[in-house]
Amino acid sequence: MADHKERVGVYPGTFDPVTRGHMDIIRRGAKLVDRLIIGVTTNMSKNPMFTPDERIAMVRREIGSAGLANVEVTGFNALLMKFAEHQGASVIVRGLRAVADFEYEYQMAGMNQQLNNRIETVFLMADVSLQPIASKLVKEIALFGGDITHFVSPAVRDDVVARVDAQGRLGDY
Question: Which CATH code for domain 8-167?
């Protein structure tokens, strides 16, 4: 019998906050590999609501609640391909919601392939019911006092609401 080399995937993102859409991609991505590493990255240009450590803890909690035994969560602040190489990954998992996502992701996949052609990028289409969900919009809705229940888990909703309450809401209504 041939030795089976463990197939490792990396799903990178800011996860600020982690949404039902992210969790859908994580669940499905975990089926494609032996071990899926969720790489929570620092992207200050996205003006994060939560610190990297808070986001890592949030994603770990959600993974634990989902019972995904082959999924790990770690933070990184490096070039994605360097991180993937360090993790021994052969696959980068990316979620696509819309055509606008595809253009950006297609360009990034091409650049990543130039950096390391031994690591494949796999795109998973978001579930139709989850396609409109974006962390940026979830935060905006919460900041204006809207209900984000349909977009995140109850625990994440509580985290976001607590942060918004501490920072202050926007708008007059």
Answer: 3.40.50.620
